[in-house]
Amino acid sequence: MRQASLARHPFLSVFSQKIWTGALVATAFGMASVAPAAADSRYAAIVVDANTGNTLFSANADAERYPASLTKMMTLYMVFEALESGKITKSTRVPFSATASAKPPTKLGVKPGNSVTVETIIYALVTKSANDAAAAIGEYLGGTEEGFARMMTSKARKLGMTETVFKNASGLPNSSQHSTARDMATLGIALREHFPQYYGYFSTPSFTFGRQRMRNHNNLLGRIEGVDGIKTGYTNASGFNLVSSVKSGDRKIVAVVMGGASARARDNKMAELIKKYLPKASGRGGGALVARSAPAEIRADTPVNAIAAAMLPKKNAPTPDARPVDEEVQVASLDAEVPTPSKRIAEAFGDAAVEQAYAGSTPSAVDPVKTASTVQAGWVVQIASSPSDEEAKAALAKASKRAPRILAEAAGFTVPFEKGGVTYYRARFGGFETKTAAWDACGALKKQKIACYAIQQ
């Protein structure tokens, strides 16, 4: 069935044909071994030899999953392509619209009407996984973020990612946005093969924006020898995702883990896969594995509908057969599915339209939990609760300004909850992996006369 489909797409590479033959193995996630056991419903993984395209390990690799911030890998692919074609430069200024600036965290926090350089966008995506930066560059290159998402999906088809549909540039929740572990491996290999001059950005440990020092959320950088990227991702529905590229001598692999129950479990599983399968990779390459198409005309006035129509099916691709079960969270208002079946009227028009359609509903249409993979794991410090989201955000900004050193590694966000029929917003700082770290931060904040308490997520 798949081989027949491949024949109809001459742009698909030898890599795509080879890895689609990999056997699917149901395995346990978070176990000490890769031996089969009772699997997490969201778990999927694959290890691909980046020299030969052979599949070294596969578990649910073709099952549809939510990519979360792995989506930004394609956003960056499009940025690199625009750089290479001369449509933009690293110093090109990218304006932030009100829509882009309003994206939920993780974000840079650029105000509407202000701008940053393309290179700042790149750093923000590979380290902080900034949603506002993703939306801004999407609008700049595609005219609208929805149009840019169609361009991303079109590019995915040209790379052989047949099971992937993008609906936004960030990976913020949208039930029609999905991919597979295999497709993400294809994209990881394509980024290295097609843009070696830009690939080094993925190994950036941190960068500074204003007073913020943004740490790369990829915990394996510097921890596992040979790991040089690529991207993390997390939402309630997706679980914890990670794509890793590893090089040791002449051996190269790209590994994908999706649906982890925690950042630590995901990282441990990835480390386990790397240790077991990197020695089995070939030391000889056979040329490029992912076919590369000529770059499309990328600028704000690109007729994205025409581009998409040439590549995409007439009907929207199906959503996953069984929606992944949301990770257990402490705030009840975050547990609902997003969006519910009765509220899908705006899906075809992208994430922004969905947000507008559900404005004022509870829970929020866009999952308030950050898509960055680690900031929501572990412990958080709460500093305020307000009936106004803007007031809660103002409290976060004030605290960050008063205690920049204490909160240098933390990221502020708000969480809605209902009490007595009224919606309130908790103002919290996330990113504390241990109870001690959160308690120490709160103690330091109290010395700055900032009321707070620590709580486990």
CATH architecture of the domain at 2-88 and 145-280: 3-Layer(aba) Sandwich
CATH topology of the domain at 2-88 and 145-280: Beta-lactamase
Overall 3D geometry?
A: globular
Which radius of gyration do the C-alpha atoms yield? 21 Å
How many strands in all?
A: 13
Structural class: alpha+beta
> Low-confidence parts lasting 5 or more residues at pLDDT below 50?
1-39, 296-377
Distance between the termini: 44 Å
CATH class type of the domain at 2-88 and 145-280? Alpha Beta
- Helix amount: 25-40%
Order of helices and strands: HHEEHEHEHHHHEEEEEHHHEHEEHE
What is the typical, i.e. mean, pLDDT?
A: 76
Physical arrangement of strands within the biggest beta sheet: 2-1-9-8-7
| Total of helices | 13
Structural features, described:
The protein is of the alpha+beta class and 457 residues long. Among the domains are: 223 residues, Beta-lactamase (3-Layer(aba) Sandwich); 78 residues, Sporulation related repeat (Alpha-Beta Plaits, 2-Layer Sandwich), CATH 3.30.70. The chain contains 13 helices and 13 strands. Strands 2-1-9-8-7 form a five-stranded antiparallel beta sheet, sandwiched between helices. The longest helix has 15 residues. The protein is globular and about 60 Å long.
